[in-house]
Amino acid sequence: MAVSAASVWEMSIKQRAGKLRPPVQDVVGDLGRRFAPLPITSEHAWAAGELPLQHRDPFDRILVAQAQHEGLTIVTRDPKIAEYRVAVLAA
């Protein structure tokens, strides 16, 4: 199991915007202990740019590209993710 750098990046932005309450860094630290970190590679970035535009959120698009490239399942509540050819576990 892995946690994407994109997810950590998005949590940081949402905390700064007041959409997530601290201690988000504690959650991120816990994720780092429980899951393998998944960096964003140039291959992931290129694949995200090549995806059809069913979803315009760049964070979701990079997660889809990573899952496709790495053979991973995405845990999400977003029904648009399932429109891509990617395994989804509904949260």
Word description of this protein:
This protein has helices at residues 5-16, 24-34, 42-50, 58-70; strands spanning 2-4, 36-38, 73-76, 87-90. By secondary structure, the chain is of the alpha/beta class. The strands form two sheets. A two-stranded parallel ribbon has the order 1-2. Strands 3-4 form a two-stranded parallel sheet. The radius of gyration is 13 Å and the shape is globular. The mean pLDDT is 89.
The residue-averaged pLDDT reads: 89
Oligomeric state, counting identical vs distinct chains = single chain
Structural class by SSE content? alpha/beta
Q: Unreliable runs, pLDDT <50, ≥5 residues? A: none
* Largest sheet, strands/sense/barrel: 2 strands, parallel
**Estimated radius of gyration:** 13 Å
Enumerate the strands of the largest sheet in spatial order, edge to edge or round the barrel: 1-2
Judging from the principal axes of the Cα atoms, what is the shape? globular
Put simply, the count of helices is 4
Estimated helix fraction: 40-55%
Sketch the topology as an H/E string, one letter per element.
Answer: EHHEHHEE
Q: Measure the end-to-end span.
A: 15 Å
Range of strand content: 15-25%
Would you count the extended β strands for me? 4
